Amino acid sequence: MKREEILKAIDEKYKAMGQDPDTHLRGLLYAEPITYWDYVQVDALLGLQIQRTTFPDEMVFIMYHQINELLFKMILWEIQQVSFEEKIEPKKFEMHLMRISRYFDMLSNSFTIMKDGMEREQYLKFRDTLTPASGFQSAQYRKIEIASTELINLIDFRFRKTIDRNTPYEHAFEHMYWQAAGKDHETGEKTKLLLNFEKRYKRELIQWMKDYNKVNLWTKFKQLPEEYRQNVDLVNAMRHYDHTVNIAWVMYHYEAAVKYLEGDEGEAVEATGGSEWKKYMLPRYQRRIFFPELWTKEELDNWGIDNLKSYKKLNQEEVKQLKL
């Protein structure tokens, strides 16, 4: 654009807002130019790592989880752009799904930082200062799950037949699959880990359930016209996301946990929150699947077994056989 066109566009923009364009132009005379460190807030970011112990590898642990939370925020940003777009085209839907999958691919690959980036001896010592905190308490991750699929797919497998669309949100919340990991497996009572989490986030998460009840990714997909639901690229993007989150990322997490909580001796150490972490993590126990109708019966039956190596991209004929 030429200078005259730019000035005219600025003039129109601020007049439409009921603002005086000249005031804003004069403001540019006094404004300081932006710098990288101010734009990214580098000083603030680098000041957020506060250790509880003197073990050097605790800093790796803190920063790694902060990076996770930033990526979770990016994922939620992408989901929002699908969920609240009224008439979304398959190409845009697929684009955001693949962005999300790439973020989760990054999360999956980054587990080598955890697996190979800390000394086990240091971890087993500084982790004692973290009890009863746990990565279980990531509210952003819970939001990703809720925004991805219908609540029934996040309900503990044992209780799914007792819950339907008319079930109160509070009741559904109490039967989410991760509730089992936050309860004492002997008494069934909620642990301090879960009580702290609910005190901080329960109300917020229940509101999130309501907000995404009819616009979560799975419901959004099922609301598309049939020709869109038969779009091969979109279906494969949905499958890729489901597999990446609920099998690949979970298994990388599990393998890192095995190294630190089991070690070479095979004797399991209790998780900081006191949960049965193997049953909580392994896909074959939880059978958490965001988009169940996009998988064949054989794939569903073998979910999480041998890491679902049968996962593949579908062709047009195979997509038609899903009868969406």
Topology (elements, then pairings):
Elements: H1 3-16, H2 21-30, H3 36-40, H4 42-46, H5 57-83, H6 90-109, H7 111-116, H8 120-126, H9 139-148, H10 169-174, H11 192-211, H12 217-222, H13 226-229, H14 232-261, H15 277-281, H16 283-286, H17 297-301, H18 316-321
Helix pairs in contact: 5-6, 5-9, 6-14, 9-11
Secondary-structure arrangement, i.e. CATH architecture of the largest domain: Up-down Bundle
The poorly predicted ranges are none
The overall pLDDT average reads 89
Give me the oligomer status. Answer: single chain
* Number of separate domains: 2
End-to-end separation in angstroms reads 47 Å
Please name the CATH topology of the largest domain.
Answer: Methane Monooxygenase Hydroxylase, Chain G, domain 1
How would you sum up the major sheet?
A: none
- CATH C-level name of the largest domain: Mainly Alpha
The helix tally amounts to: 18
Class of secondary structure makeup: mainly alpha
Q: Any overview of this molecule?
A:
- This protein is mainly alpha-helical.
- It folds into 2 domains: about 5-30, no CATH class; about 50-320, Methane Monooxygenase Hydroxylase, Chain G, domain 1 (Up-down Bundle), CATH 1.20.58.
- Helices cover about 60% and strands about 0% of the residues.
- The protein is built from 18 helices and no strands.
- It has helices spanning about 5-15, 20-30, 35-40, 40-45, 55-85, 90-110, 110-115, 120-125, 140-150, 170-175, 190-210, 215-220, 225-230, 230-260, 275-280, 285, 295-300, 315-320.
- The longest helix has 30 residues, at about 230-260.
